[in-house]
Amino acid sequence: MSSQQVYPDHLLLQLSRTQFEAPSAWLTDHFTIIEGGTHANGLSRNKLIVFPDGTYLELLNWIEKPESWRDRPGDFALTTLKPSTAEDNRDRIVKALESRSERNDLEVTYSQPIEGGRKTLRGDELRWKILKATYPNTRSATPEKYHPRGRTDAPFFCHDVTDRILRVPFNLPSVVDHPSGATGIAGLELLVPKDKWESYINLYICIVGASPLLPKKHGVAEFELKSPGSLDSGVIRLRAATSEDDERYLRVKGIGISSLIIRSRKIGEFSFPVSDYLH
């Protein structure tokens, strides 16, 4: 169903208080950063780097970090657009995972929708619903050494209840005009263990509702996703760890995001040093 089409939403980067209040020159030289606001629970705040294609980077700072929170290698979110709902999307994913249960050896499923929100500096009340990936039987999946800070090897979903344009103001030229000419997310790479590469392909088929682009080769598989606010598209790339450097990255950072490519109208594409912001 077209209403169930999956789109990239945003990448979450955690910053210390110092990094948050005085972002690095690399960030300010390349991007326009806007204030987001404080989340409804009062525990965190954010700033946004919004792109014309409707995707964005979220710079998150904990005002008071929950004891249960474990710093993780970097969360990223997907979404669907109205009239699709969080409930519709969860049903789709869970059914897909159940239909491929014999190949779902990563032990991943998705939570019931969780309500969330924040208040912008202008006073707008934003509301959304989150679907979180959950891992009920982690020990039978991938080795613990590949999850030093908790599992984020599957994305979460952020579904807007209020109008998306309030949360992601990609219609405002002053917000999306970046010094680097950045226009959106062209590629997001996840590094995964070599012996679980096919398992992750199967998982992401269920999550995005589509097969990877052909051909799969050299331990790389790509899923193409249309951008939520433009005709552009980007890819989620699953890459199997094949070197000592790859294995070291998995042990230190964990399974998850290893590379982010930004699309630019000035310079084509450029790499974002994402590992610098993954605690």
UniProtKB/TrEMBL annotation:
<dbReference type="InterPro" id="IPR029068">
    <property type="entry name" value="Glyas_Bleomycin-R_OHBP_Dase"/>
</dbReference>
<dbReference type="Pfam" id="PF13468">
    <property type="entry name" value="Glyoxalase_3"/>
</dbReference>
<feature type="domain" description="Glyoxalase-like">
    <location>
        <begin position="9"/>
        <end position="194"/>
    </location>
</feature>
<protein>
    <recommendedName>
        <fullName>Glyoxalase-like domain-containing protein</fullName>
    </recommendedName>
</protein>
<dbReference type="InterPro" id="IPR025870">
    <property type="entry name" value="Glyoxalase-like_dom"/>
</dbReference>
